[in-house]
Amino acid sequence: MLKIKTFTSQILLCATLVCGLAMHTHAQTATTLSISGEVATPLELKMQDLAAMKQISHKVKDRDGKEHEFKGVALIELLEKAGVTTGAKLRGENLAKYALITAADGYEVLYALAEIDPEFADQVILLATEKDGQPLPAGEGPFRIIAPKDKKPARWIREVRSIKIAFAKN
Ligand SMILES: Nc1nc2c(c(=O)[nH]1)N[C@H]1C(S)=C(S)[C@@H](COP(=O)(O)O)O[C@H]1N2
Ligand SMILES: [Mo]
């Protein structure tokens, strides 16, 4: 009897774990990233939309000096898809535009468009979806910004939910 009970509870435990994992995976794949503001085409992107785009990766050290390989889509590609003024159009008044990035926990960071555009910047800022070959875990993903040349990771914003393009003037 005791053996049967143990067996049943083990099955229940497994079911709970599998179900929890499935729910977590679903939550991560259902999360959308919105790109809005000064854009030609506002976007709502899911994991699968990003997976269909060109992937790049960066090997970077975290704040503890541990190396990780982050993979995902270049932020500039996403801005181009949304019709943001990049490349030849990033001049004149457009140089006063920025991207304000907001996370699920309310944390926000800002990059000027010129910091994101590789015609100006000597880093390619990444919207990462994977770390060391795995989808980013809850609390970090499903989307995280990695700016490999920033000397500290304070702008590597986790759990990104929205990117708003705006003019830094009234
Ligand atoms: N959403 C969100 N992202 C965040 C933060 C935060 O508080 N919320 N903290 C930042 C800071 S100050 C640092 S140092 C790094 C730490 O990254 P880690 O958690 O991978 O070590 O995350 C950055 N990204
Ligand atoms: Mo930090």
From TrEMBL:
Residues 30-164 form the Oxidoreductase molybdopterin-binding domain. The keyword Membrane does not apply. The keyword Hydrolase does not apply. InterPro entries: OxRdtase_Mopterin-bd_dom (IPR000572), OxRdtase_Mopterin-bd_sf (IPR036374). Keywords: Signal. Pfam families: Oxidored_molyb (PF00174). It comes from the Bacteria. Residues 1-27 form the signal peptide. This is Oxidoreductase molybdopterin-binding domain-containing protein. It comes from Dyadobacter beijingensis.
